[in-house]
């Protein structure tokens, strides 16, 4: 049994998507970022960085794992799913997982900060992060022109990148003209495990799409308070 400590952010969803797709039993513990629960001693013992998500594995004497990418690799190895055993196949998946962790996540996270949360609109910063986010999307689109999924078969790399790319409108990044990326997004959105994963602990898709302005504004205010308090609203 896995204990998942998480909040409704793209990085949090990476862990819950993986758990759902792999069919591993787990129990959810919601971490209230607004209350600073990620800084409490009990959480820091599991995750020294004070960011969600984190897991503990009851089957392994409550072994703790932090950092969303590391969690996905651990779960894939535990379940024997979505991460090839051969050296080359494993490397391909991990390369695209690192692409998300080192590029997609940080750039979209900064786009969110300056486009949605920061009290002053610093246009050069907004332009810079949205442009870099779009460039990274184009890298994905090029890869997906020749592959159904990023590393061949569906893998944790697809889960990780999709958890972020699906929120592109919240970051103000267009996917217009990226037909391969759109096809890939639709394919993953149709997977029951992926759909279930983005509802753990709650589904904020409507807020991210900003369909309800009042709720979206409330979400932005809460996120802004965490940003200005030096706590990232996007997890690790």
TrEMBL record:
Pfam families, alphabetized: GST_C (PF00043), GST_N (PF02798)
Residues covered by the GST N-terminal domain: 1-83
Keyword Kinase: no
Cleavable signal peptide: none
GO molecular function, a single term: transferase activity
Keywords, in A-Z order: Transferase
Region entry Disordered, spans: 214-236
InterPro entries: Glutathione-S-Trfase_C-like, Glutathione-S-Trfase_C_sf, Glutathione_S-Trfase, Glutathione_S-Trfase_N, GST_C, Thioredoxin-like_sf
CDD domains per the UniProt record, alphabetical: GST_N_Ure2p_like (cd03048)
PROSITE patterns, A to Z: GST_CTER, GST_NTER
GST C-terminal domain sequence ranges: 86-219
Family label: Belongs to the GST superfamily.
PANTHER family: DISULFIDE-BOND OXIDOREDUCTASE YGHU, GLUTATHIONE S-TRANSFERASE-RELATED
Protein's name according to its UniProt entry: Glutathione S-transferase
